[in-house]
Amino acid sequence: MYLLGGFFLFWFVVICFRLVYLQIFRYGDFEQRAQHQQQRTIDVSSKRGIIYDRAGNELAMSVQVDSAFAVPSEIPDLPQTIALVSRVTGGDARVILADCRAHKTFCWIARKADADLIERLKALNLQGIHYQKESKRFYPKRELAAQVLGYVGTDDAGLSGIERQYNDSLQGEPGQMVISVDARKKWFGRIEKEPAPGDNVTLTIDEKIQYIVERELEQAMKDTQAIAGTAIVMNPHTGEILALANRPTFNPNVRKEIRNESLKNRAVSDVYEPGSTFKLVTISAALEEKLTNPNEMFDCQMGSIVYNGMRIRDSRPHGLLSVTDVLAESSDVGAIKIALRLGEQRFYSYIRAYGFGQQTGIELPGETRGLTKPINRWSKVSIAAISMGQEIGISALQLAGLVSTFANDGVYVAPRIVAANTEPQTQVKLAAFQPQNAHRVVSPMTAAEMRQMMRTVVLHGTGVKAQLDGYTSAGKTGTAQKVDPTTGAYSRTKYVGSFAGFAPVNNPEVTVAVILDSAVGLHQGGQVAAPVFKRITQQVLEYLHVPHDMELPANRQVLLAQQRRIKDADLDETSPDHLGSPLDAADAGDDSATLAGTASSNSTPAINPPAAKPAAGVAGTVIVPAAMTSREPVSGPAPASEPAEPAAAKTPSNGTVVLDVEQGGIEVPDFKGKSVRNALELAEENQLELSPVGNGLAREQTPAPGTHVAAGSRIVVKFER
Fold first, then answer.
1. CB of 204 within 8 A of CB of 54?
2. How do the residues of the chain divide into helix, strand and coil, expressed in percent and rounded to 5?
3. Which band of pLDDT confidence, cut at 50, 70 and 90, is reported for residue 171?
4. Contacts (Cβ under 8 Å, ≥6 apart) of 301
């Protein structure tokens, strides 16, 4: 009895120790194994923040849709059920079946599916197939501003555009749902953590202006058969991007149809040689350094010059041209002579001050710095090549910033596209947009002189097709040959045509830049890009209710007939000569940069621009809505010019140039010899706004006396003692 009792006592103690070991020391391990068999935790997508335009219109939003999932333990014939499901969803049955066998409690079979697909699944009435509401990204305007907005993946992570740049704030905090299966293989789910909605983002883009730009760019692509195009509309005073369009484009709602070439935001990531538009930098720098003036005459040597053993010719022979006509007729010989006065060091400092060779800081991914070599890497002909837009690469956004500097009285303001980033709210909120990174590049007088010279480009230069009805306009054309990737040399059939300008001239409201890549047939900037500038700018100014600063012609049909008689050959500005080898893509400043027709690029050392003087910009106001219910070879092709005579000798031979386009409005009085006080009084009497520069007596003014301008126009007057 003692032996039997001791034996039972021993086993009792062993069993007790085993129970203690299993239930206390191994408790955590068994609990995890049980949860793995019976439960699965899945993320519940949060409601992604809304992206608005400046007026509060929804450009990207999240809507509630159904997602289908399976509980394999409830399905009696798993292979047969998955086969039926895959026929409806179009998915790979083997992949879905493998996922379901690996996760016996839960597996997705159709996430964020269309309502029609969900209805077809429900009609099958399959056992073990259930449905869960999730947030799905929806773009109500389809292709509108697609490269700006970007798109998201199935898990709602931003993959491009604003969706990617602001993904962390837009995404919010996902929730968690626990799926459990009991001993009878019945499932039930519970929400352990509620998802938190993401912040909203308000852009500076205007939905209606964006639509105008995209429509006209699409028409230009059809008319010119270009392979790609870019158009930008910008407020020159604040840097706000009012519209940014690219072609080709895509519909972010249909991810399966998105192609890689359509995803590229060419306005910020593509690099191209600017051609003649870069003469704006050359001439403005020389004016600012007092090395020349708009009326100085230059001998263009009948359109041919030899520099360091290299010959460069204009498209036609030019004789004597004023600086104004060097710009209007886009003479490369004239631009080279002006740059040689300027010198390499000063020229380079202005290139940097205008923002070239560095990112603008716009809130979009993949921005390039462009291709700008430091002086120690310049060749013996670099200063000549760069003066006319060769041996340097820029982006469309940088071009818009350059032209906006002249429209903004010489102050450079960095472009911006995001107005505000706010938390979800229940009421509409106004946000003041403040310009950033503003600095003065040239004086107000130099900027005023450039505006008038750019006006001449449109009146009787290479940009006559950019003339507006009822508004004055100013700008510059550019044409550059592309590099043929197969030969590494410049193509004789592929060109990048561009035009960038602003309107009205004396009180600029918008800056517009248009770039067309590889147009078929006519390809000069004045032939293909200037007409697009005209159509976009005309509609945008009318939409913004900007007062006309020119009288409309009494007979509009006569004016249209005159404009149609402009010969496209007169707008040619491409030189037959190159100063060196094609621009090396290894000089690129950002890995994401793409040289038009070449490979991607590396960075170059940055050199500080001249000391920047801070300047206050004009603040804008945009509406920030609350969260609503889900609802131009490095010396490559020289863009040359057409022949011209001195401005005083210009006489239209065929009646196609309207010389009195600025008739009407208020005649600008002569301020010369007057003190600042007297000049202010005279300006007030004539309903004009005076911008005085310096002290003493008035010596120079822009616009010139006798010019007709609209009431309230700004007159820049330089005073000296």
1. yes
2. 35, 25, 40
3. confident
4. 333
Euclidean distance between CA atoms 112 and 91, whole angstroms: 14
**Residue at 65: amino acid letter:** V
Residue 258 has pLDDT above 50, yes or no: yes
Looking at residue 638, what is its pLDDT?
37
Taking 60 as the threshold, does the pLDDT of residue 635 lie above it? no
The radius of gyration of the chain's CA atoms, rounded to the nearest angstrom, is 33
Tell me the torsion sign for CA atoms 476, 482, 483, 485.
positive
**What digits encode the pLDDT tens for the residues 330-348?**
999 999 999 999 999 999 9
Q: Is the dihedral of CA 524, 282, 322, 409 positive or negative?
A: positive
Integer Cα distance of 188 and 40 in angstroms: 11
Is residue 529 within 8 Å of residue 514, measured between CB atoms?
A: yes
Question: Is there a contact between 129 and 108 (Cβ–Cβ < 8 Å)?
Answer: no
Strand partners, 613: 440
3-class SS of residue 536: helix
Give the confidence band of 172 by pLDDT, cuts at 50, 70, 90: confident
pLDDT exceeds cutoff 80 at 181: no
Compute the CA torsion angle 400, 406, 411, 414 (nearest 10 deg).
0
Alpha helices in 135-242 (DSSP H): 146-149, 161-165, 167-171, 207-224
Pairing mode, strands 714-720 and 689-694: parallel
φ and ψ of 665, to 5 deg: 75, -150
The pair of structure tokens assigned to 292 is 């020349």
Q: Is the pLDDT of residue 611 over 50?
A: no
Contacts of 266 (CB under 8 A, 6+ apart): 147, 228, 229, 230, 246, 396, 515, 517
Tell me the residue type at 181.
V
**Whose CA is closest to 573, among 332, 224, 395?**
332
Q: Which residues, in sequence order, are CB contacts of 193 under 8 Å at separation 6+?
A: 44, 175, 176
Cβ pair 121, 132 in contact under 8 A: no
